[in-house]
Design brief:
- This protein has 192 residues and is an alpha+beta fold.
- The chain contains 3 helices and 9 strands.
- The protein has helices at residues 2-28, 54-70, 129-139, and strands at residues 45-52, 77-80, 84-92, 95-107, 113-122, 146-149, 154-157, 169-176, 181-189.
- It has a 6-stranded antiparallel sheet. A 3-stranded antiparallel sheet has the order 1-9-8.
- Strand 3 and strand 4 form a beta hairpin.
- The chain crosses the membrane at residues 7-29.
Amino acid sequence: MNKRWKIAFLSLLTLNVVIVAILAIGFLWPIEQEPLPASNPQKEAVEFHIQSNKEDLNRVIKSFLDEQKEGGRVDYNVYLRDEVELYGDIPIFSERIDYKLTFEPEALENGNVVLRQKGIKVGRVNLPVSYVLKAARDAYDFPEWVKIMPNDEVIYISLEDMELKSNLKVRADQIDLKKDDIQFTLLMPTKE
């Protein structure tokens, strides 16, 4: 009887060690990441300068995400407050855990936007930011012009690759959420 207990204990201990090792390897495995896309400046376009605010952009973002949700492509929410807030959930084992990521937006010289990770809340557990970004990238079908870069803890939004009606393009000029000052340039191609 004593020998059976030893075998059962050692089997259970071995199983626990294997599970912990698999989880550790999964968490520590390097995350593959694509390089930032090259900029393609819009040639022969008329520029329209637009100034907006968080309230209006939140309505646009909600409309876009609602449209994407109808196709079953997304299940996350984005809000502009004093920071950009991304809400969603990620699968961990057989459960889905809620998370909230906050980002500081920056308009780049090429007109694209980078969201630099600022804060994270994942249920009640502190997980590495890169893990949560990778899990979000893998769990959701983000548009091609949104690149999640877990190693750098940023989300790169390539506005120049965003497809709009009538071949319009958008370039971010200024994003200051605390002052509610958001400026874009709308580029309308011409046939000269």
